[in-house]
Design brief:
About 70% of the residues lie in helices and about 0% in strands. By secondary structure, it is an all-alpha fold. Belongs to the AhpD family.
């Protein structure tokens, strides 16, 4: 299984997704590690077994073992953080924002990869999970690190395409039953 298999699985009515998947993966200005870490982390966050099965082997082939693990850690930690902070933001009582979170996130101290890569992947997962507070936090960290807006946008472009492919293919699987 591969990216080619995934791409060929996208139905004709969603051919724009096919083209976008090819361009975000094949034409990305990100480094291979930044690209494939974002792809893996967002494929996990998209919660599609089919998409994850197709993309994970290519991510493994393009990432060091440490980066592969770090991308999985981002998906796990950011999903927890996204739910927590999105909920805190959506509640009308601002006092929740003053309470201690009480969630362990030790990976933030030593992610095992370059901090910029970790922040890009965190931003991409936060885009999939729709957490505005986390998106702002990671975008600001990236901008403080000197990352330009085009690079930041590339991370959430990847997230948007991987999520759309996952939704489309999962829907097709159900509709085919």
């Amino acid at each position: 299984m591969s990216l080619d298999s995934l791409t060929s699985s996208i139905p004709d009515y969603a051919k724009d997704l096919r083209l976008n998947l090819g361009s975000v993966i094949g034409g990305s200005a990100l480094s291979p590690q930044q690209l494939w870490g974002a792809v893996l982390a967002t494929a996990i966050a998209a919660r599609s077994p089919f998409v994850l099965r197709e993309l994970a082997p290519e991510a493994r082939a393009n990432l060091s073992p440490e980066a592969y693990t770090a991308a999985k850690q981002v998906a796990a930690t950011m999903t927890m953080s996204n739910v927590f902070h999105r909920t805190r933001h959506l509640l009308s009582d601002p006092e929740y924002g003053t309470l201690r979170a009480g969630l362990r996130m030790n990976v933030l101290g030593n992610p095992g990869v370059d901090r910029v890569d970790f922040e890009l992947w965190s931003l991409a997962v936060s885009a999939v999970n729709g957490c505005g507070a986390c998106l702002d936090s990671h975008e600001q960290a990236l901008r403080r690190a000197g990352v330009d807006r085009e690079t930041v946008q590339e991370a959430f472009r990847i997230a948007s395409v991987v999520q759309a492919v996952a939704v489309t293919l999962d829907a097709e699987a159900v509709l085919a039953e």
